[in-house]
Amino acid sequence: MMHLLKLSVGSESVDSLVAWQKTGRSHGPDGLPRHVTRMWPKRESEIIAGGSIFWVIQGFIRCRQRVLRFDEVIGNDGIRRCAFVLDPEVIRTTSAQRRPFQGWRYLDPADAPADLPRTRANDDALPDDLSTALADIGVL
Prior knowledge:
alpha+beta, seven-stranded mixed β-sheet, globular
């Protein structure tokens, strides 16, 4: 199994990502949320075998969604693209700081942050400076 890591550009919080995904603009013809990108993952079968896309929001991994499949999308310009078709459930994770990057990256399951317990899913996020300090000393 393998995961993906992607910046959620424009999202200020997990709630803003969820709100955007509820709009019709993020849905495919099947009604499921998707993210369209230029590059097709070479490790597709490993990702489909239970992998998730981990979203980096404001410099921290904050949540994940299971990747259901990859669909081919041909843009108005005739260029082939890849749609990551996602489970609508957004699962909050422990925070993990990440530097900005372009595109998406593979994320080894051993390096993926743990899911928050469902009882903490609606907890307020720690302030970024506190999350950073705790991550620096290995608490998060």
